[in-house]
Amino acid sequence: MSRRKRSKRVIFMNAGRKRAFDKQQALDKATRLFWSSGYSGTSLSDLTAALGINKPSLYSAFGNKEQLFKASVEHYRECYGAPHWQKLFEPEQAPLEARVKAYLYAIVDLVSNPALPGGCLFVKSACESGSQAIPEDITAVLKGMGQQNEQALSAFFRDERSKGQLPADADAEKLASYLTAVMYGIGVLAKNGNSQASLQAVADVAAHSVLRTESVQKKTRQGKP
Question: In the chain, what are the domains?
Answer without folding.
Answer: 66-221 (1.10.357.10)
